[in-house]
Amino acid sequence: MGKVILWRMTLDDETCWRALTARDARFDGRFFTGVVSTGIYCRPVCPARTPRRENVVFHLSAASAEAAGLRACLRCRPETAPDMAAWRGSASTVSRAMALIEAGALDDGDAEGLAARLGVGGRHLRRLFRQHLGAAPVSVAQTRRVLLAKTLIHDTDLSMADVALASGFGSVRRFNEAFKTLYGRPPSALRRRGERTPSGGLTLSLGYRAPYDVAAMMTALARRDNEDETVQGGVWTRRLGVEIDGAEGEVAVRDGDGDRLVVSVELSSLKALPGVLARVRRVFDLAADPEAIARDLSVDPVLAKAMTQRPGLRPPGDWILHEGLASDRLCTDDPALLARAEVWRPWRAYGALYWRAATEMGEAR
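Given the sequence above, the corresponding structure tokens read:
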């Protein structure tokens, strides 16, 4: 069996332009389209009229687009795109850094401190982020805060002060300044009136790339021996605590419409919200790239058949962040399987999941 050649999407302009003109959903979240004539950046699936080619610049990430002075489209809402994961499996340092940023490492700290936690130099970390995300760590952190705030402004009735707190801004002043810089208006001007989340909790949606067998994920989560988690009626619920989550409360997740999970959260402190959402994304593996995983693992004929018969399987993640790439974690002492799994890197966790599926179907050999 030959060695797996890791698939990476080459973000050349021609590939991106074809994806944009076709509104190809497979590319949603992989890149963003900057329209220099309007100063707006969009998802490739934006329903607006396709801009003129000479006015378009493509960006690796939302952070790269915002660092270039572009503002998020209010129609396609880039904050609702699936989590960008083009760097996953190719740069473990970036993966670990992103996990720490999602947990709030740059809300109170700086990039040098983050680099020290990762055991690398600040210049090296910035170079890796430029290479894989097209923006510096601080820009990535700022963009994540702004896009979460946009989601809360659009989808909840939280006050602007509470939105600032819940999205990781250290103060309302910093929150207002960020929005005025990006959008030329205060954040309150982005709020659309209409049906809102009722008081007593927040309900948001998190996107993923299809295929995703959410029912299989719920079954796997129900098997976990964890007194803080339950699965009933297709709803996964976890009890939250101050020591781990920074607040008391509860989070519940269920399948939604249009390749999205619906997340309901009740918290004693809104400041804990970014960390809780990051953990939900990790548990439900929302940053998975099914196309890349399938292309890499399909060199193994057993896995290729299993993926065709059971598309969308994903291994559940840990609520508490651990070192190493979760996608490559392999829990087995079977020497034959360990040897075979070497060609599954960096997707050994997915390979093992599909190997078990193939075994259940009598296809593994």
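Residues 290-360 form one domain. Try to locate this feature in the token string yourself.
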